[in-house]
Amino acid sequence: MQTQPARVRILxxxxxxxxxxxxxxxxxxxxxxxxxxxxxxLYKYFASKEELFIRVLSERLPxxxxxxxxxxxxxxxxxxxxxxxxxxxxxxLFYEQSFPIAASLYAETQLKRRHDDAMRQMGLxxxxxxxxxxxxxxxxxxxxxxxxxxxxxxxxxxxxxxxxQRAFAYEATETGELPPVDDFxxxxxxxxxxxxxxxDSPA
Length: 203
Prior knowledge:
Blueprint: H1 6-20, H2 28-35, H3 39-45, H4 49-60, H5 64-73, H6 80-102, H7 109-121, H8 127-142, H9 152-166, H10 181-196
């Protein structure tokens, strides 16, 4: 059986450890051991644990940014509600899977600072999906499918904020279960579209 490339094994091992142990308690030595390589080999592919974490988010979790980029590049495909439903679904899954990994960032100030510095150096961060969704909505606005007076940045923030909130807001409920992602995405997109769609604006 052919062995997977070292970079793939490292990402897989990092994803599993960060999910089960937590980012703060996961070391590069443990990741290398789980990947079946040396720690020196790990650093040939990733400059730091922070970079490795960012790559896990971008390559092992639902791909939100590529979806937003493709929609912004070719607006007018499908309906805004259909597109926002798919965006909400992907975003909800992304936050659901990334929240357990990233939660420990907020417990350690130095770790959070290193993570933020690495994100800035790579041109990434939690603001990037908001900007991407805003770009898509503005593209639809130029086509006349979104109301001209709609605040697209606020709409993007509302949709993605709701998706992020879903990841941890329901643990205290009686069932402790997250709302089913497909139904959640559909209802969220429909509600948001009602407020910004040109088709629903007053005559």
